[in-house]
Records
---
Amino acid sequence: MRLDSNLQDRQREERLVGARAIVAGVLVLAALSLVVVRLVRLQITDHEHFSVLSQDNRVKIQPVPPSRGLIYDARGVLLADNHPSFSLEITIEKVDDLPGTIAALAQIIRLDDKDRERFEHLKAQRVRFQGVPLRLNLTPEEVARFSLDSYRFPGVDVRAELIRTYPLGELTAHALGYVGRINTEEIGRIDSSDYAGTRFIGKGGVEKAHEGLLHGQAGYQQVEVNAHGRVLRTLESKPPIAGRDLHLYLDITLQRAATAALGEHRGAVVAIDPRTGGVLALVSNPSFDPNPFVEGIGGQEYHALLYAPDKPLFNRAVRGQYPPGSTVKPFVGLAGLAEGVVDTRKIKYCSGAYRLPGQSHNYRCWRHSGHGGVALEAALIQSCDVYFYDLAHELGIERLKHVLGEFGFGARTGIDLAGELGGLVPSKEWKEKVRKQLWFPGETLIVGIGQGAFMATPLQLAVATATMANHGHFFQPRVARAAQVPGAPQAEDLPTVSHVIDAGDPHRWEQVIHAMTQVVESPRGTAKGIRSRDYRIAGKTGTAQVFTLGRNQAYNASQLEEKMRDHALFVAFAPADDPRIAVAVIVENGGHGGTVAAPVARKVMDAYLGGSTLIAEPEAADGD
């Protein structure tokens, strides 16, 4: 019985082992089948898909930013350049311990609170695979120190790039503008592919207006990287296309002379070539240094500029809106001639005040004793307010607005500078729409002498004066003259826009211009103090009120704080018989145009035309 039992146990065990072997064999076979199926899928079915994934993990596309175009003045002086700079960048997705990495970097490279604040601000604007600058403008020593320890910092790299610089600083800030970091609003409106690898964009002036020419086109390079993201070799590349260089009408010698002529005064000077519309000088004083803005100015420094009492960031030349005062009288006079309301022989009597028919209110002339009987030429020479009150009344506000609009008043000139404002020529329609009020006849009179709600920029005054000098040929003002592909033998002229104002009889232009010449040449002219032996000047003085006087209130500058005093204005062109330069000057709170603004214009014209001799020093003001 015991032998049978042992035999049965051995047979049972053999069957169990056999069954287990069969199960194990089946499982191994099934597993091998799965492996084979997977290999077939990887190597045959999905080979192309996984090959692409593998390649993408090993090969990266890196954008190559273009070099920004340079900017030169009319004489070839470099106004905007690029200089090499090194920055320390962190790619967030490649760093496991960001705070620890920054702390370790601070041990070998100086990092201050400003660097950390800027990093946190930029980190919020960028996606994780983009580099975020932690420290800008590394010194060669700092670059070397990081290079020695770079193996410790995966995801951290030193990036070399070209940074914008403005060699003349404040002298060209308002004309050129500056470039700065691309902000959130700009990211939403630019083509991201065009700005791949670029951190900067034009923020004002020529830099913003001609961004499309200056920026260029980004290139790329296909690189092989290791597991840490380090570049091993370049596989393929497409070079970027550099931005075009710009050549301006701006003459830096004249720009410097205009800035010096304004001195410490707040104000603006705009000089234009009447033959082309080219802007020869554009000065807004005070100014600022644009260089700190390129890589991000500190909050404290920016706050100091933004809230400075004299507003250095404000471009008075294209954004300052002032009552043009009597500088508008030549254009009102031409309107009267063109519309047939007056001729050069028609006499109007100035008693020192003017009344509208049926009204008792007196609109006073600057000369309270009056000018007596005056025709158009005498009215311009002596700046008789009563003559132009009556002329404006006869023209009516609609005709007056139309002719002034032909000269560019009340609308943007279209200059190739960012941020231009259009001024205002008030009218019935404007007052009803904006102020919900009726227009009164007396307001037409005030517009006729450039006061009240009438506002113009120094640029508009310069353009209108250039148009007068050019006998009605209006050129849209331009700062940039030509664009040049780097390395190309010649620059390509940029297009100009112009039209002609029809004043009827061409002789009317000469009549007004002759009167403007006598404003300077005549012993009774309000700008007689700037006469020159070298060339003849045609001009018009102006004084713009900062506040409105009461009915029985007299203006006394000595009893007013400086910022409540009248603005001084002057417009002119020269030589009067062959104009090559037209100038508009405003000196904020300067007082009389003839004694303050006119000498500034004379210095600018001397610098351009080579004049040197004043016949008489500017004397006490007689009129505006």
---
Amino acid sequence: MAGAELVELAKRRGFFFGANGAYGGTAGFYTFGPQGAALKRNLEDAWRDRFTLQEGNREIEAPTVMPEAVFEASGHLEGFDDLLVECGECGESHRADHLVEDATGIEDAEALPGEEVEELIREHDVACPSCGSPLAGRDVEDFNLMFATDIGPGDGQPGYLRPETAQGIFVEFPRLKEYARGSLPFGITQIGPAYRNEISPRGGLLRLREFTQAELEQFIDPEADEPPLERVEDVEVRLYPATAQDEEDGEYLDTTVGEAVSEGVIGSPWVGYYLGVAQEWYERVGVDTDRFRFRQHLAGERAHYAADCWDAESEVDGDWIEIAGFAYRGDYDLSKHDAYGDDSFTVFKRYDEPKTVERATVDPDMSVLGPEFGGDAAAVAEALETLAGRDPDAFEDETVTVEVGEGDERETHEIDADVANFSIEAVTENGEHITPHVVEPSFGVGRTVQTLLAHAYETDEVDGEERTYLSLAPEIAPRDAAVFPLVTNDEPLTDLAGRVAADLREAGLAVAYDDSGSIGRRYRRQDEVGTPFCVTVDRDGIEGDGPETVTVRERDSAAQARVPVADLADELAALRTGGTFDDLIDRYGAVETDVETTTEN
């Protein structure tokens, strides 16, 4: 499906549309309409079911605004940038790497240094997309993508809207580990909004300034914890390894998760496990696997803390877009917050058997350090303790040298070794404090919504007429069913149709009621928003001595079966959770009918 057609359908049928249209619109912000909000909610519920409930993980909901110190620790203040170039003629700002990609065919130009991007703009005569003026000679600068704010009145406390949901999980780790009783591995999930002040939002839901993420942070002991790889080892995946991307004629690798991990194509068994879980989940929610792949990050685009990183990518409108990322983040995040924060980001790992070890210790004589160093005495004592653990040999001389303070105020002090009271002691330990490693599957919800709509878009012919329909999985579709009276001037039919709709809603199903226009036209409207089943109330279902029945029509095949009203809610619920329409036909029999062309009476 072409991008313009998808955006038009999404707007016309209430899936999504640009926000704030009455005030000229705001680039990078979209409103999900009634159909889109329902589809998005169903997608999030399916993700929650698989990555939270089935994995035995726990979900939290952290604030979207966090203090500046959090992002200083995480590195976002220094390194969360995109490459910006500003047109000298019209003043419009653009993503420099995107312009280079469009002009040269280079993939992932964001991994290139700014100087190289400037050179490529010059070599290829890249012009401003807004006014056509040449951009050669314009500086390419780093632009931080975070939205800044103040927490509290006046100057307040500097803060930022979170650029990812992950930091809310990492910051609360000291509390979350208590809920897990300090036992690894454990996983924490979160679904919620994130904010990035994109330079040039584009592509519908593909690049937004406010978007929804679904993330799992899996905390593990890297020396002891292994994933349950056997659950997904036979799952077939299409991989695009970095080595293949570097080759001119590099090809996909169609393999299984187990083989890819054993052969080292996927470096981390944990990453491999979640690729397998994701592959099955994407198939479940309706992603076209012929237009889907896992692409490994090239060395230049991989975050410095990530040992291995893969993206789930889908093909939409001829382009491959990232819809999820899977990274082995090591201990980077927790170590950074441990260094900056005022709490412990480690867990205590108990040994199977107590161990006796030799440990270097100091017991500084504060009656000497106090008068000599005054307010620095405590810092000197702490420096001596740190030095003893790092370099015990430093205490063999008559004096010991330590440094205290930060930056320009850093000072060097010499202390008599006997004042430090250095010794080596035998200590029996029951365990040790370790910093867990993190494995992170991170999903873009809006991008997945756009992928599902693009992959579900179908056209065919029914009764000699062309129709457009969205072949959405019943679990994900905005509505579970629609109910129609065959004609609207027949009171017994409209009464029963209204009662059927009410009963289905009471059973927890999302149901539309439509009595406007011909029955065929009503079917077409429901097909176009992806409603998987339509329930038609006709005279055959209310006449005779048997129980009341209705005709159930399946969207993709237009096949129909007659089902007792008393069984209808249970049957539709079963179809939503994995049952097939063929099973329904086997139980009740197929119906041959021409109701699609019946006109309104």
